[in-house]
Amino acid sequence: MLFMFGVIVFIAYEAIRRMADTPAVAGGMVLAIGGLGLLVNIVVAWVLMRGEQTINVRGALLHVMGDLLGSVAALVAGAVIYLDGPPIADPILSLSSAY
Hints:
99 residues, mainly alpha
């Protein structure tokens, strides 16, 4: 639990730092990686939903659903940046997915 809190703090810190000094972001690459992550998370969620319905499987499914939302955020950020939107979309969506 403490490790996860540390990861959340790190993601939030990096997102805020990148909002102040927005680096160039390859929107196409973010879009591709977000799409791949989304595909993997959908497959894993599908496998877990078809499996045995125990509390452990339910916990794993909820975890995958959280990861799926992160992949959607990456897809949205990548699409915005790829379509010549502001690069600040990446840290904003990173910050939103940290919570």
